[in-house]
Amino acid sequence: MTEIKLKWGKEEFSVAIEAGSTVESFKTQVWTLTNVPVDRQKYTGFPGGMLKDSDDLMDKVSKLKPGAKIMLIGTAEGSELKAPAEKTLFEEDLTPEQKAKILKEKKVDVLPPGIKNLGNTCYMNSCIQCLSRIPDLRVALERYTPPVAERDIDSVLTNQLKNVNQMLAGTVEAITPLQFVMALRQRFPQFAEMVGGGGGYKQQDANECLLGMLNVLSNTLHTQSGNSVDDLFGFQLKVNLKCLECDEEAPQETLEQQRVLMCHLGTQIEPVSHIHQGIALSMKEHIEKNSLVLGRNAQYEKSCSLASLPKFLIVQFCRFGFKNKAEWTGTEAAKVKLIRKCAFAANFDAFDLASDDLKKTSID
After folding, report:
1. In terms of pTM, does the model score above 0.70?
2. What is the rounded CA–CA span in Å between residue 55 and residue 97?
3. Is 65 found in the same domain as 153?
4. Is position 10 within any domain?
5. Tens digits of per-residue pLDDT, 349-362?
6. Fewer CB atoms near the end CB (10 Å): N or C, the chain?
7. E-state strands within the chain
8. Residue 355 lies in domain
9. Dist. CA 263–CA 95, nearest whole Å
């Protein structure tokens, strides 16, 4: 009887080989030790290379050097590689909707999906992107159910905005809000104006689009206190009118309901460089109106202050001005865009713009 050292993975065995043993009997003996089936067993370390079924086992064993180890290669029964219970999905195989669902479940912050341009619709796309980032408005739209009968264009446009929000929340790729654009142009025909000579749709103003959308939503998103738009964006301005041409006329004080706060950018001589400066400039202006005391139009100073604050404050940067006609340059009067930087911080302090009554109020 001869003993040999057998190494299998991290395990080692002493195998006793009786005289006259064959390769087949040797493999059967190893099977009982390791549970590796005979047909899976491969051996290295025997003289002459890999052990074959036709080899003379005793001859091979006799030629082993003292202390030599034989290496077994093979997988035991029950340890075979198994196919995964669930099919592995690779990122390139996922649909945009599947990607968005997985990222949402893992709470991964990703950039918002884009919106494809459908013919100079950048003004509309920017408004949708801004409104879609307001959680309270998304909830109000999600709860909205259009009327079954007598659906007007406002309800259609609101429902299409609801669909757009669902599309943005359910994908990571750019969406195509074709139905919304069609409803918007039907509700506001000016957004369907074309450039002469087949040049496509005209460029439009984002502020006009935003105000129009807010007006529509105020007609459809009803709440106990009124509507979701005024609940979220509405605030009051305290307006004081003082006649500059008649000291006998008493100042007039009124309250105005607003949804957007203006930020003028000043003039070339006195430019505005910060949002707080621009809003403060917008809160005071000179206007011309009829004076009952004088019986004619007169100049008034209009001073405003915030009588209340909304949950979400919308500020419009007034980037368009009016350029007078200049005969020496040969230019006509025209509306011009103001290319001017206006800085703003992450937090906006409205204390200096508030009315005295609002300053006394504790605001969370």
Report:
1. no
2. 62
3. no
4. yes
5. 999 999 999 998 85
6. C
7. 2-8, 11-17, 42-44, 69-73, 222-223, 226-227, 235-243, 252-258, 260-264, 284-291, 296-306, 314-318, 320-323, 334-337
8. 235-359
9. 43
